């Protein structure tokens, strides 16, 4: 927390698109698991979050199997994973639904991890970012692929203060695991 009296804390919204999923025949979309590449990339995402000091205080995760598996493999790379809430509303969510979920987060959470799906996540990042460091916004406009991580920073007393154009996109990375 920022020690200055009256200062709003720096909050970070870390957006993680689920890792690469498989397309098994006859499996409903919500039940699709990770593909072999996704099983390699999800732990790499967890490592990337740790290396960039982007570990969350709380994770909100879609209930889709591929999102849950991404969370499980990524968070297994950390000593003690934070609490996770599996949110049915994050599956196939658009920007208003995603923002509604974020607005419900308790104020003591300073770094929130949101794990979900495109096109909603990409649209959310583009909607919230008023500016970016380097060419991060351009990167997201071109593509927000599976396992992509976007970090948005902003000052706010509560998560309800997060609104379109109020955040700074501080970085985008697309971790990839090594083939064995």
TrEMBL record:
This is Histidine phosphatase family protein. InterPro entries: His_Pase_superF_clade-1, His_PPase_superfam. It holds the Pfam family His_Phos_1. It comes from the Bacteria.
């Amino acid at each position: 927390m920022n020690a200055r009296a009256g200062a709003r804390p720096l909050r970070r919204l870390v957006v993680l698109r689920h890792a690469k999923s498989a397309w098994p025949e006859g499996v409903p979309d919500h039940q699709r698991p990770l593909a072999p590449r996704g099983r390699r990339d999800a732990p790499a995402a967890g490592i990337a979050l740790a290396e960039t000091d982007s570990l969350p205080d709380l994770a909100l995760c879609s209930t889709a199997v591929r999102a849950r598996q991404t969370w499980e493999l990524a968070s297994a790379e950390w000593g003690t994973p934070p609490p996770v809430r599996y949110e049915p509303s994050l599956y196939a969510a658009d920007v208003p639904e995603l923002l509604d979920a974020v607005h419900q987060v308790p104020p003591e959470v300073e770094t929130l991890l949101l794990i979900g799906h495109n096109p909603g996540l990409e649209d959310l990042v583009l909607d919230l970012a008023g500016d970016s460091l380097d060419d991060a916004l351009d990167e997201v406009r071109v593509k927000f692929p599976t396992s992509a991580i976007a970090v948005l920073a902003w000052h706010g007393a509560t998560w309800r203060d997060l609104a379109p154009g109020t955040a700074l996109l501080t970085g985008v990375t697309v971790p990839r695991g090594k083939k064995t």
